[in-house]
Write a structure and sequence with these properties.
The complex is a heterodimer. Helix content of chain A is 65%, strand content 0%. By secondary structure, chain A is an all-alpha fold. Chain B is α/β, with parallel strands linked by helices. The chains are: A mainly alpha, B alpha/beta. The interface between A and B is large, with 38 and 75 residues.
Chain lengths: 148, 519
């Protein structure tokens, strides 16, 4: 081996299919569990029943998953102008801003509830991509994010 | 002894002409030659980082120590790598060109080198810097890369954890042959005096070959100069020990000609110019390019590599997507020359776009201590006074010029021809291993060597000997781990080793964190 010649991505280098699979998986595992944990302490309008908040939160998760599929096509397109065909870790964090803004505009949800739920969930998922996913799924990072 | 127990050397238990001429051996033939046989299911030949990657995987999957034999003259898996890195001017405190997540001692890539460096550093600022860098690379910061010493120390820790010394059998492997009845017989030559016989045969169902580079490579004109003149002092390869060059530079002003424009050249240039800037030397560095990269390479906006000032730039030796992204997939679809071309286009000669390197070259160029020249070398001869070496060059316009240098450093790389390795040459010539368009071993995506199947046994290879097959970055840390994973999953799929699913993977990761041996 050329001692100076080395390699590879911080999280994983996604393919389009891998992106979509990873997103759906992350939202409905780490995202869902985190949402259930944080649900009781989310800020909510006075007197709003917990059931309504839970409905909103669940809808937001579905939004991140489904609208996200469209986002992934866009990100994949942007990735094509990068020679490395990679997606730096920082992008994964920052895309939370555009996705969060768009999602808030299409959802009818109190701002404070949305903001706390969305931001924390996004960060939990982003962190989970950096370690736990690698530990559980050994082939994931070599398969462009594909799980099956 | 005059019977068949005396082999080629006349020593007991040696190879016989009959064995050498037979492509598939029976146990009786080996026994008749007096060569003792050791049974073990899995043999890994090489004992370097490639062997470590596979053995680590298998141990973590649950293969016991006594089911694996590592055949190698080296005691530590990082020995050869460290030797080459030191020669190419990367001592333990310098950084490699390796990603934070290409963690040689940890199959999960977590925790990464950056996190561990942060953990071990003193003071908040020092702790936060690697984390900041790895989080914002390559947008706000340059790619994080680990210090070589960190890699070696962590490899030593992991080899101790998985019981490396119990699996290691010292010696040089001479050849691997098919065994009649299935599997393989690997002939080991142990160090003299350590065994009763000259050779020992390892009888196994599976064999893994990860033999590294057979030697250093010289440009044709420099090899020819060295052969004709016998001068191995003024013309050196950056991967062989050459401290005498730097010592002489410190004694008097000299001119050094550097050949090559890859990452090794960058590191050698840094060493030379560092010494100048520290006032230790007054060296004039002449850098000769064969192919001068003056701008980005590629016509398509979606397939264009940055390049300027002579160098092609990318962070690592292949684009990141070659390890596990869309380039990996693309290569799996290609065959023959198209595959070889794709590997050349995404790899080839390139270096890392480090700001400190570029700045340093700029400073030295401004005062004339770093000079770039472009052209094809027509001859390399001693100067008339015999004290220097003259390189005659033709530039692209057809004009010729010459460069007189006190030293020439060939920084073009390592010899990778499998013909230079007799185990691999034997595998191709006698066993019938197929070669790929790059002349290396043709492997399946599972890294099984095509043409070597010996049911129910299989023979795998990883590392530089497989370049040109279905994976490009084979000779990198992560590439070795990828190969190991493919092999381990192939062995798991045929039921030869336990499968490594999410639960076991997690459990074993916690054991790694606590530095406990695999269960």
């Amino acid at each position: 081996m050329d001692p100076l010649d080395e390699e590879q991505a911080t999280v994983m280098t996604p393919t389009l299919f891998g992106r979509i699979q990873t997103r759906l998986f992350m939202v409905f595992t780490f995202g869902l569990v985190w949402s259930i944990i944080i649900l009781p302490i989310l800020p909510k309008p006075e007197g709003a029943p917990l059931g309504d908040v839970a409905g909103d939160v669940f809808l937001a998760l579905i939004g991140v998953a489904l609208i996200g599929i469209v986002w992934e096509f866009l990100y994949h397109g942007l990735q094509q102008v990068r020679w490395e065909k990679d997606w730096p870790s920082l992008f994964g964090l920052l895309t939370g801003i555009n996705e969060g803004l768009f999602l808030y505009l299409v959802l009818d949800m109190p701002l404070s509830t949305f903001l706390v739920h969305f931001t924390t969930t996004w960060i939990v998922i982003w962190l989970a991509l950096h370690g736990p996913m690698r530990v559980l799924f050994l082939r994931w990072r070599f398969r462009g994010g594909r799980l099956v | 002894m005059t019977d068949q127990h005396a082999g080629l050397s006349g020593e007991p238990g040696d190879l016989t002409p009959q064995l050498i001429e037979t492509s598939t051996w029976t146990d009786q033939q080996v026994a008749a030659a007096g060569i003792p046989m050791v049974d073990v299911p899995i043999v890994s030949v090489g004992g370097g980082l490639g062997s470590l990657a596979l053995v680590d995987y298998l141990r973590i999957a649950g293969v016991p120590v006594h089911d694996i034999a590592v055949l190698s003259p080296n005691k530590r898996p990082s020995e050869t790598y460290e030797f080459l890195a030191n020669n190419s001017q990367i001592p333990r405190h310098e950084r490699l060109r390796s990603d934070s997540g290409s963690v040689m001692d940890n199959i999960w890539g977590f925790p990464s080198y950056a996190l561990r460096e942060a953990w071990n550093e003193k003071g908040l600022k020092n702790k936060l810097f690697p984390v900041w860098q790895v989080t914002t690379e390559p947008i706000l910061a340059e790619y994080y890369t680990p210090k070589s010493g960190q890699v070696y120390e962590s490899v030593d820790r992991e080899t101790a954890r998985i019981g490396w010394t119990q699996m290691l059998k010292a010696g040089q492997v001479r050849m691997v042959r098919r065994r009649s009845g299935g599997g393989f017989l690997t002939i080991l030559t142990p160090p003299p005096g350590t065994t009763q016989t000259r050779r020992v045969a390892y009888r196994s169902r599976f064999v893994h070959l990860s033999l590294g580079y057979p030697g250093v490579r010289f440009l044709d004109d420099l090899r020819s100069y060295r052969e004709r003149s016998g001068d191995h002092r003024r013309v050196v390869n950056s991967y062989e020990p050459h401290p005498h060059v730097y010592e002489e530079l410190a004694r008097r002003p000299c001119t050094v000609l550097v050949r090559g424009s890859g990452i090794v050249a960058s590191r050698v240039l840094q060493r030379l110019l560092d010494d100048n800037e520290a006032g230790r030397t007054q060296t004039t560095v002449v850098h000769l390019f064969r192919n001068y990269v003056s701008g980005p390479q590629g016509d398509s906006v979606t397939f264009r590599r940055p390049g300027t000032g002579g160098f092609a730039y990318q962070a690592f030796n292949y684009p990141k997507a070659a390890w596990g992204g869309q380039f990996r997939n693309q290569l799996l679809e290609l065959e023959g020359d198209a595959r070889s071309d794709f590997i050349d286009t995404t790899g080839g000669t390139n270096t890392a776009p480090r700001k400190d390197w570029r700045d340093q070259l700029g400073r030295a160029a401004a005062i004339g201590t770093y000079q770039q020249r472009v052209g094809q070398v027509s001859s390399v001869e001693p100067t008339d006074d015999g004290f220097r070496v003259r390189t005659e060059v033709q530039d692209n316009a057809g004009a010729s010029f010459s460069i007189d240098a006190d030293f020439i450093i060939d920084a073009t790389g390592l010899e990778a021809s499998i013909r230079s390795n007799r185990v691999l040459a034997d595998l191709v010539d006698v066993t019938g291993a197929h070669t790929n368009p790059k002349g290396r071993l043709e492997t399946l995506p599972t890294f099984e060597v095509v043409g070597t199947r010996s049911e129910p046994g299989r023979l795998y290879a990883s590392g530089s000997s497989t370049l040109g097959s279905t994976y490009a970055p084979v000779d990198s840390f992560l590439g070795l781990q990828y190969s190991a994973q493919q092999i381990a999953f192939d062995l798991g799929a045929i039921g030869a080793v336990p499968k490594l699913g999410p639960l076991r993977s997690f459990k074993e990761w916690t054991r790694w964190m606590k530095n406990r041996p695999p269960s």
